[in-house]
Amino acid sequence: MAGNPVTDLNDETNAWQVRMDFGWPKVDYAGQWNIFALYKYVERDSVLDAFSDSDFHLGGTNAKGWVIGGNYGLMKNVWATGRWLSADVISGPKYSNDILQLDVNTRF
Description:
By secondary structure, this protein is an all-beta fold. It has strands at residues 15-23, 33-42, 63-75, 78-89, 96-106. A hairpin with a 2-residue loop joins strand 3 and strand 4.
């Protein structure tokens, strides 16, 4: 006999992230750079979807994976950012996605 689907749910309320950065703390001038890598684990009921990272796993929760990227200064207060995001579903049907983001940013 199958269990009750309402009472047999496991709590999935944990979320954590580990990040490492190397290089300049802030890229302000041409030639400055930094790189970063992070691993993220966000279970389905750990964060309200409205407050989750909209880029990682295309938003929402129930995902685990990593992000690597870097910044490179092009001129004063202008820098390029590249980021690769790879995420997999934690529970439920298998689904994963990989995203490449390239940005040019400015600060004034």
